[in-house]
Amino acid sequence: MAGSGRLVCVGLGMLLGGHISPRAQAEIRQADVVFAAVSDPLVELWLQEMHADVRSLQPCYAEGKSRLRTYDEMLALILAEVRAGRRVCGVFYGHPGVFARVPHRAIAQARAEGFPAHMEPGISAGDCLYADLGIDPGEVGCQHFEASQFLFYRRRIDPSAYLVLWQVALAGDRTHRRHAVGPAHRALLVERLAQDYPLQHRVTIYEAATLAVHRPRIEVIALADLAGADLRLQSTLVVPPGVALVPDEDMISRAAELDARYPAPAA
Amino acid sequence: MSNVIRFLETLGREVGAGAAQSPEFTAAAAGLDLDPPVRDALLAGDTAALARLLGGRPNLMILLVPSEPGDEKPDDDGGEAPESRLRDVA
Questions:
Q1: pLDDT tens readout for residues A166-225
Q2: Structural domain tally of chain A?
Q3: Is residue B2 packed enough to be buried (19+ CB in 10 Å), middle (13-18) or exposed (0-12)?
Q4: pLDDT at B65 over 90
Q5: Residue ranges making up the domain that contains A11
Q6: Which of residues 113-172 of A touch B (CB under 8 A)?
Q7: What does each C-alpha distance from A98 to A101, A122, A256 come to in angstroms?
Q8: Whole-number pLDDT of residue A2
Q9: CB contacts, 8 Å: A216 with chain B
Q10: What CATH number is associated with residue A170?
Q11: A88 within a domain of the structure (yes/no)
Q12: pLDDT (0 to 100) of residue A3
């Protein structure tokens, strides 16, 4: 039976001080206890100065321990406080619902147990990517995949749209224990991408700035050089369109007939 | 809030990424009441050293999503030496 506990998951955005929303600030301030999974030690120190009881989720990690088990433990810690009747705020970097399964699971479980729970959106690394690289996802479309999932499952991609692969430093890893894969794993990714793009296709390694003293990392390389590139856990691969949009003449013709049948209001 | 954390917060809010490249940054950072090693790390943009000097957590991990969607079962962690799991596969 649900008591007075509640859960909200918020995002700090990517840039310390620059992206935190008024909603996130209010939820942190009003919480009884704050759990934190952030992107930088300085961000963690900054958050610790916002609330008297900030509990880092970092101790759930351990060398050699499956991240899947780590995330189960994070979930258990968060929900234990909700069940104890506390107002819990889960604080995550970026957007708490983008490439961060723990917040979604925590909210779903809290709700299943009858506790109020919701998520406040934040500025994600993807939002920073659009701004820093000058990409409008509405122009020709933008596909986002987790890099290993892109390899392990048969995905039909559209090379006339942008392709963004997240967690590219771990592409091909199935152990959930690595902090990076080597050139042999990355060669699989190059091989897969070469099915749709030439090896000299220019791709971008992107990392959002998390501190104001940094600039975002925007490094353009040839696809052929990806296997030997310097990739970190926060690296994202942006593959621009390799071909132009291909019109669907039949659909265009049918839409034109509808336009004639149902004219738009006159200017 | 500590001086340097507050400074970074202000930079993030008022200037944004790349603030260290602004002409005002060096003067502002130099004017802070900081221990010399902290000031040096800040001026150099060495945020790893800065975090260390301020007592930040070493080896902070970011959240990663599993490649498999939906509910996942954690692997059995028993039996394998932890170090061997973290080596890159050539």
A1: 999 999 998 888 888 899 999 999 999 999 999 999 999 999 999 999 999 999 999 999
A2: 2
A3: middle
A4: no
A5: 6-119
A6: 146, 148-149, 151-152, 167, 170
A7: 8, 9, 38
A8: 53
A9: 17
A10: 3.30.950.10
A11: yes
A12: 63
